[in-house]
Design brief:
This protein has about 400 residues and is α+β, with helices and mostly antiparallel strands. Helix content is about 20%, strand content about 20%. The site of protoporphyrin IX containing FE (HEM) has 29 residues, from β7, α8, β10 and α9.
Length: about 400
């Protein structure tokens, strides 16, 4: 799944200096100019209605990690940690050094579109005595029949997503945040990802995944009238007052999805295209047109069969087939070397954003799990669901509306 997050503008946690990233919201960080001189200067706002790293264009490097609060740490320690983390994130995203004992790893670089995004897992609320304020949307995801989930690399009290267009800048942020955790929390799991680098393509275009597919085309666009409603929790919803702290927030579903690349790469091109229902070269539907032409799901070919196969991934996951369920897919690819069987441990750190997982990820994955054509080439190996609160206002730390 998919590339394409749009540019962050104004109320959606804005990009202050949008230089290395083009104006096509589906362009995974690959800018029109891609001028190396401006790449470092790209800066994303820390403050805003929404946290950065949701609608921000895909960055070239990413780290996602979860922490568990240490034994004995509760609400007070969690609040102090969120305060430290917010201060560090704000400074690093502005291209400044870390507040304490900066490691020097990013000294010569600009912010490189660094974003840091924080979320809370289901277990966080029990650990901090805040169970009554845990939204029902954080209820554990259902188990899917094809899941092969490793619990040690899943869930966790706190979740952090780091993205930047430079590997050293991203790692620098990772180290600083890990040091900030101090005695309050320890890393539960950590994963590293990447996307195309800004300037790698001659013109901005939707990113590709490790199967070679153009991935992100069907994402909701920030210009869609219902974009905010689908992706962000409304300000004053009908929900209970104890959940008001999530206003402007979003729910992140994180799945480590291994790609069985050796099997995939053996498939002939036409089979690969049938699996998705789109052409590999340009991402256009098999029913024709360009990448952005809508899928013609009813078109029947001369053989009497639907042109976009009934089990094609793009058909089964299409919002029209799922009661309008929509999510913003904003993944990183990963590669963790070659396994003992000689196969690459590689795939997609699938991250999708929605106002309500029961109206986004869950119904779509339920259908895909019944056997879309892609299923035999992938394996879900880890899973997490996190409540990502709204963006901080100046002077506020992320999560203050829950923890104060
Ligand atoms: C569409 C790949 C997993 C949901 C697509 C497309 C590709 C793709 C190539 C067509 C282009 C596009 O619209 O982005 C993959 C791969 C996956 C994966 C390689 C796993 C490694 C998932 C999962 C979900 C999902 C787990 C959600 C449960 C969607 C949605 C669309 C889509 C909603 C857009 C459909 C539309 O709007 O027409 N995916 N996908 N995908 N995928 Fe996936």
């Amino acid at each position: 799944a998919a590339g394409a997050a749009g540019l962050a503008l104004g109320a959606t946690g804005g990009v202050l200096v949008q230089s290395a990233v083009g104006d096509d919201p589906t362009a995974g960080g690959s800018g029109a100019s891609g001028a190396p001189a401006s790449l470092g200067a790209a800066q994303v706002a820390f403050h805003g209605d929404h946290q950065a790293g949701i609608t921000t264009a895909l960055q070239a490097k990413g780290h996602v990690l979860a922490f568990d609060l240490a034994p004995g740490a509760g609400r007070r320690e969690a609040a102090a940690l969120m305060r430290r983390w917010s201060d560090t994130a704000r400074r690093l995203m502005a291209g400044e050094t870390a507040p304490t004992a900066d490691s020097g790893i990013a000294l010569d670089a600009g912010p490189c579109a660094l974003t840091v995004t924080f979320g809370f897992g289901h277990s966080f609320f029990d650990r901090t005595g805040l169970t009554a304020r845990r939204p029902a949307a954080l209820d554990p995801l259902p188990e899917f029949s094809a899941d092969q989930i490793d619990p040690r690399r899943s869930n966790g009290d706190l979740w952090v997503q780091i993205g930047a267009d430079d590997g050293l800048v991203a790692f620098h942020a990772l180290r600083a945040l890990q040091k900030d955790a101090g005695d309050a929390a320890r890393v539960r799991w950590q994963m590293n990802g990447f996307n195309r680098s800004p300037g790698a393509t001659a013109k901005p275009m939707t990113a590709r995944n490790l199967m070679g597919q153009v991935d992100g085309t069907g994402n909701p666009k920030q210009t869609d009238p219902d974009f905010a409603k689908r992706i962000f929790v409304p300000d004053a919803g009908p929900g209970p007052a104890e959940h008001a702290w999530m206003a402007g927030g979003s729910y992140a579903v994180v799945r480590r999805i291994r790609m069985l690349l050796d099997d995939w790469d053996k498939q002939p091109l036409d089979k690969q295209e049938q699996v998705i229902g789109r052409r590999k070269a340009d991402g256009a539907p098999l029913t024709g047109g360009t990448e952005t032409t809508p899928l013609d799901l009813d078109r029947v070919g001369s053989d009497g069969k639907v042109v976009i196969p009934s089990n094609a991934h793009a058909r089964i996951s299409a919002p029209a087939q799922n009661g309008g369920a929509a999510m913003l897919r904003r993944p990183f690819s990963y590669h963790d070397g070659i396994g003992p069987d000689g196969a690459p441990d590689a795939g997609l750190l699938f991250i999708c954003w929605q106002a309500d997982p029961l109206r986004g990820f869950v119904p779509v994955q339920r259908k895909l799990d019944r056997g879309d054509a892609l299923s035999e080439f992938i394996r879900h190996e880890a899973s997490g669901l996190y409540a990502v609160p709204g963006g901080p206002q100046p002077g506020e730390y992320v999560g203050a509306r829950l923890l104060e």
